[in-house]
């Protein structure tokens, strides 16, 4: 229930979120109302002998102290990436729903692990526009198989879910996909809500696989502008592919990395899933701290293509997309190189990208000469 | 992820679920595939030192043994009741979204408590067809206020949630509402998965408040047939009301009752949330047992109206709607009268309705001379 600022100003002719159908300014008053109302319910846990971890309000997952460990829970929506899969299926005859399933689970588990939780159970929410959605057996089987594979990769039990047919609410031929995830933080020292985040800590970035599931509204709008649409060859890519196929690369699942970091004894003080608001999410923690980035990743071909074709300046691109970094862990400086090595060994590229400094809450991306102020990311009350 | 049979055959001219847009037969193969795939992921919990409670597969919430207690989780969809609220708002100018919020939470928590869990955290899933949905401030505020009030009534902390704008997936002007809920079963002896369900146990039924959120597709189809639609006066009702207003009576929240039963020392052996499939849900447990009902509740006016206007025979009506009983608890015979008294004292009418007997899996409703075979409810692998 994070409140959101709209992306930074755009150069003339560029695509923007306002134009692409997502108007965060209109949603925010409701989100703020909801956050206030939700906050007032936390005290109910007292009657059960438990208590909320107040600093998890406004973070990516909600945390409750249940005694021997913390409980963390979340629900997350895929967003509009399924529309790209539908469009590509119409063009190519191939279903990308196995990847879409992975994307949906990634939205939930990559947020859940930021608080130090081990995801245990995922529940599927697959709301179709009508029961005929399930008539496409290949697509339905891909969704099931991809969902299971993502659970296998993360060591999560798929507990069940809900598969309603919602004609009149969900559009015909479409599906609204979400995942609910419950996990525990155990031992309790794994809790990584940033209480010990401090100047001198290192920022270790983990590579993304592409656009993940953030920024698809803008990408879809761009596809409409291109003469060959989703089939536009992606010349930036090392291997021949199309814009649409590259968009559908599934989101990296980060739980195996956070679990590997824990097993290696890395002390993660804070973590951020880089989704909406792009790199501005690096300032997610409310403390007055400056985040300085010195090492950028290679930009995935699909994001370089979008930045170029949509004529986005660097400020907008890094303030909107993951630009090659899908997840950040904040660790003591002496753990940093080892954290990156552990992640690489577990299969995800990683690098020590920068550090936390004393100073006003802001993000400085040195190689791009960019700075975002703390007021450019409003995700909490 | 329960598989579903279609309702029993209907008399000529009657409304049926096939005709009203929900074709369970088309969804079931996917559900069965998903159940099989999900089943295969349960063993992942071993690596975290935990294990699933296998008998919770196919029940209303998924249960994991995390050591000191059990963890239960669920995600549930409201279904199409919001469409009735939208239609009534267009006719009367009043928003019923506070009640709709309660309905949505009820769908999740009333299922969660069947396994003996205390709901702790609810996450909101509010996917709108566009950010303009939130422009109607009265409606949005009602949704927030109703959501909070339901949390207050159940002693649940509202942990957060997701409020995406999904143009192109959710229809314009509509909202797809769901709730994810996490709870614990503590002490572990509260687990009520029916392992000790036995002949001689009593069936205690708890009153519903009306249609709840089950059977709305059929009710909507009926409204289209009526000359005055949702504004048709409900002459069956003791207080003047319309068909539409009566449909929007919010679902009873049963967690305060199940908590009161626990505090009173009632040993609940099994519990059923009476939703889809109506009273056939009383046969939910897989054991070979016969369920005999001897005492019927008064039928809520809105359900009597539907049964009459849609020309449903008793077999169809009780096999589809809650017909006045929204929840069932199965308790030792000697606890039965006290269980009903505890529920009534906690504000929900209740009565000892019947008993569990040795015999083939079937439901016998004696006062109506009705019998449903176990093959008329397929909700598990």
What does this protein structure show overall?
The structure is a homodimer of 381-residue chains. The first copy, chain A, is 29% helix and 21% strand. Chain A has ten helices and 13 strands. With 381 residues, the first copy, chain A, is an alpha+beta fold. The first copy, chain A, has two domains: 7-23 and 194-376, Phosphoribosyl-aminoimidazole Synthetase, Chain A, domain 2; 58-189, 60s Ribosomal Protein L30, Chain: A (2-Layer Sandwich), CATH 3.30.1330.10. A seven-stranded mixed beta sheet of chain A has the order 8-10-7-11-9-12-13. In chain A, α3 packs parallel to α4 (137-154). The longest helix of chain A has 18 residues, at 137-154. In chain A, α4 (137-154) links the parallel β4 and β5. Residues 1-12 of chain A have low confidence and may be disordered. Chains A and B meet through α1, β3, β4, α4 and β5 of A and α1, β3, β4, α4 and β5 of B.
| Percent of residues in beta strands of chain A | 15-25%
Flag low-confidence runs of chain A: 1-12
Mean of residue pLDDT values of chain A: 92
CATH C-level label of the largest domain in chain A: Alpha Beta
Brief rundown of the structure:
The structure is a homodimer of 381-residue chains. By secondary structure, chain A is an alpha+beta fold.
Notable characteristics:
Phosphoribosyl-aminoimidazole Synthetase, Chain A, domain 2; 60s Ribosomal Protein L30, Chain: A; homodimer; alpha+beta; seven-stranded mixed sheet; disordered N terminus; 381 residues; six-stranded mixed sheet; 2 domains
């Amino acid at each position: 229930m994070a409140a959101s600022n709209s992306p930074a100003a755009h150069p003339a002719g560029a695509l923007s979120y306002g134009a692409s159908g997502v108007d965060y300014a209109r949603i925010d008053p409701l989100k703020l109302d909801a956050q206030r109302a939700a906050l007032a319910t936390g005290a109910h846990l007292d009657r059960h002998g438990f208590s909320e971890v107040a600093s998890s309000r406004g973070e990516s997952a909600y945390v409750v102290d249940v005694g021997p460990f913390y409980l963390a829970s979340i629900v997350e929506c895929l967003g509009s990436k399924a529309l790209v899969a539908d469009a590509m299926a119409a063009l190519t005859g191939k279903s990308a729903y196995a990847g879409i399933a992975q994307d949906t689970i990634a939205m939930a588990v990559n947020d859940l692990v930021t608080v130090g939780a081990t995801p245990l159970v995922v529940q599927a929410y697959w709301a179709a526009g009508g029961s005929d959605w399930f008539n496409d057996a290949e697509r339905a089987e891909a969704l099931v198989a991809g969902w299971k594979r993502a659970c296998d990769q993360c060591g999560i039990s798929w507990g069940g879910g809900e598969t309603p047919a919602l004609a009149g609410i969900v559009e015909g031929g479409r599906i609204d996909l979400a995942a609910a995830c419950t996990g525990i933080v155990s031992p309790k020292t794994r809790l990584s809500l940033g209480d010990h985040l401090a100047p001198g800590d290192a920022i270790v970035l983990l590579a993304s696989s592409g656009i993940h599931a953030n920024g698809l509204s803008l990408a879809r709008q761009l596809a409409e502008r291109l003469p060959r649409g989703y089939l536009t060859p992606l010349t930036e890519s090392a291997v021949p592919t199309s814009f649409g196929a590259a968009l559908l690369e599934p989101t990296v699942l980060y739980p195996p990395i956070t679990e590997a970091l824990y097993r290696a004894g890395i002390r993660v003080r804070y973590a951020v899933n880089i989704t909406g608001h792009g790199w501005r999410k690096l300032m997610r923690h409310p403390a007055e701290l400056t985040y300085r980035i010195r090492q950028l990743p290679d930009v995935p071909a699909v994001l370089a293509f979008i930045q170029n074709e949509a004529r986005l300046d660097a400020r907008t691109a890094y303030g909107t997309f993951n630009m090659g970094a899908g997840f950040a862990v904040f660790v003591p400086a002496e753990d940093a190189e080892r954290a990156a090595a552990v992640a690489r060994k577990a299969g995800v590229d990683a690098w020590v990208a920068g550090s936390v400094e004393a100073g006003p809450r802001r993000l400085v991306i040195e190689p791009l000469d960019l700075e975002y102020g703390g007021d450019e990311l409003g995700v909490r009350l």
